Amino acid sequence: MQEFAEPFRHGWRQTAQVREVLYDGQSAFQHVQVFDTVPFGRMLVLDDACQTSVRDEYIYHEMLTHVPMMAHPAPRRVLIIGGGDGGALRRVLEYPVDKATMVEIDGDVVDVSRKLLPEIAGSAFDDPRTELLIGDGVAYLRDTTEHFDVILVDSTDPVGPAVDLFGETFYQHARRALGDNGIIVTQSGSPLVMLEELQAAEALMRRVFPIVKTYTCSIPLYPGVLWSFTAASTRLDPTQVEPRNIAGRLLANGQPTGWYTPAIHAAAFALPNFLAAALETQASYDPSALPLPLY
Amino acid sequence: MQEFAEPFRHGWRQTAQVREVLYDGQSAFQHVQVFDTVPFGRMLVLDDACQTSVRDEYIYHEMLTHVPMMAHPAPRRVLIIGGGDGGALRRVLEYPVDKATMVEIDGDVVDVSRKLLPEIAGSAFDDPRTELLIGDGVAYLRDTTEHFDVILVDSTDPVGPAVDLFGETFYQHARRALGDNGIIVTQSGSPLVMLEELQAAEALMRRVFPIVKTYTCSIPLYPGVLWSFTAASTRLDPTQVEPRNIAGRLLANGQPTGWYTPAIHAAAFALPNFLAAALETQASYDPSALPLPLY
Lengths: 295, 295
Description:
The structure is a homodimer of 295-residue chains.
Chain A: E1 2-5, E2 12-26, E3 31-37, E4 41-46, E5 49-53, H1 57-71, E6 77-82, H2 87-92, E7 99-104, H3 107-116, H4 118-121, E8 130-134, H5 137-143, E9 150-154, H6 168-178, E10 183-189, H7 195-208, E11 211-218, E12 226-233, H8 243-253, H9 262-267, H10 273-281
Parallel strand pairs in A: 6-7, 6-9, 7-8, 9-10
Antiparallel strand pairs in A: 1-2, 2-3, 3-4, 4-5, 10-12, 11-12
């Protein structure tokens, strides 16, 4: 049987058995592939990096979306940068939002996802509250005069087309568009195999936002499995949300979750000691003081 | 470069690059190997299943040991079944215990670990409080008249020499040796790639103990990375431990942890929704009702 694996990171990698290559093309921005795999079902790969799969997409999209949406008392306007598969958009639309704007740089990703991974977005692209823009999210955020309650950065890792999403200028524009009561979340890589990238992203966000909180979950599709997101805000602290409030809003949304629960919301911010140490002390962190995985 | 990978599970596996094979032998019970790997440093493999590594052993051993030790107000007598590498023993001895008895079925595992993975046990095997017995843990527990406050089952998965550790009779003997105020913990596999085994282990423990709680952490060495442990007791509820109490006892132990913290203790019991559902409903669980990873 065919196999797909991302390159080794620190001498370690995961491999998925592949039943069939469903799509293989070059967009204006990146190499786009869809495989039908044994463990994950159909999965999307961009520039040889696994992005999402029909079987485990719910973990990533629930944790990316519900955590900041619940941290805001009543989000009405949401901006998604990237997210061409529609999985984050679908979760945002479970809430009583007025409008969800998605700015995806690569139209091919949207087209391929709608055709080959339709269950990830469900009917989200057809929702009248959805505004889909194919374009550069960095430029959009720089130029927009709109206000957003929540911004989700649902991007590839900080290489290739996504590199400017991980710059200080981007976060300054995000802060302006969010105002004091908004919140931004970005996926921030694996603490196990990309710790330096996570440390760099967190440090950058701290230069712009007074509240910065990293949280984790397990995403089997991604290298290292243990995955991180980092939330930032001027005033909203995502760790200070009442479980009963979350439970009530999930019930009102009316959609089952596979990973996210009120208890998971709180627990996700409890970082392993090595990670708490690595993020708190940044440059002055001494790796010899505590054990570290894979380094 | 050489590579080592466990067999595919549900079409998915992890691979580690291998610098050198340090040991390869057949014991009376199993195939014993030690590899020097790029991601994990030296690692122990039994019957082709990764057991522990010098780089990430702290995660498994801290979560196996500290959770039940903290759940007991003052553990004095501890039994470890398996655990030939000495990593659990070392953490147990950080506490003011009177005696730690270890019953490991395979003396070769102890010998190989002491020689090639000495930093995992540290000086634990030389501690005067250590009683090391090479023998069958199931028979030991059946025949012993001793009382234990904490029993740790630090074994391979329920195949090969460990199979009897996952039987109802074993847990009945454990309950007798623990009395009302003791607690037992067993590693219970990956919720992502061994969910049926976890469900079976939990169901078995529920037939013997009124309190049964599963908790998780991420162990890069193990298939699926997300890993589970299940704790069982007649009266001790490991979810009801004061964080301040944990912090004080960790301070008294005087040893740094890499993964475990008071917040991690509580957070580890917050299960992803699919897993909570799978464990609560057991046989009546309908996999189509909620998304499930890799199934």
